[in-house]
Structures are given as structure tokens and as C-alpha cells.
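REQUEST ID: PR-0412
SUBMITTED BY: lab tech R.K.
PRIORITY: routine
TASK: structure prediction, single protein chain
INPUT:
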Amino acid sequence: MEGQFLSDAKQSGPLRVYHLIAHSGIQGAGVALVTGNIWLGLLEWLPHTMIGEAKVRRKTTFAQDKALHIACKLAWLLCLTLFAEGSGGLSSGALWR
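STATUS: complete
OUTPUT:
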């Protein structure tokens, strides 16, 4: 969960877009660390930015925002699982290459 400063800065701060992209990048880094796959982390960055921007523009509700974030995480888990099965149980460390 983000702090009040970042939440406010993403909404209306003078560097609003910077804060949104930076926050999304942090989320992407989290995905990369948890999955062991930097590509999934980079893939998380874009939808996280788009979901956050939709929330800022009030195109989604708080509940829809959270559901979309969870759906993204499930998609990355599915991708990781399918990739690992398709490559004969590739270890997560090798996925960084």
C-alpha cells in the first residue's frame, strides 16, 4: 500500500506523471523480485501505470482498481507457471537471462 504523499502526488502533484510512473516501476520491480523474471516485472510496469491513470481520471472505482491489479498479478503467475512447465521446470534464476 502506498503512503498519503504518493497518493496525493499521483493525483495532482506538479510531477504527477513522474510519481505515477515511479510508483508503477516499484510495483514492476516487486513482480520481478517475487517471480524471479525481469521481463514479467517490466510487463507489470505498463498495465500498472494504465490502471493507476484510469483511477486518477475516475474511470474506475477503488474496487475495480484493486481487482485489475490482482488480475495482473494472476496473469504474471500464470505466465510464469506456463513458461516453467514448457521449459521442463526451468529454475527461476535462469529466467533473469
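NOTES: The mean pLDDT is 82.
REVIEWED BY: pending
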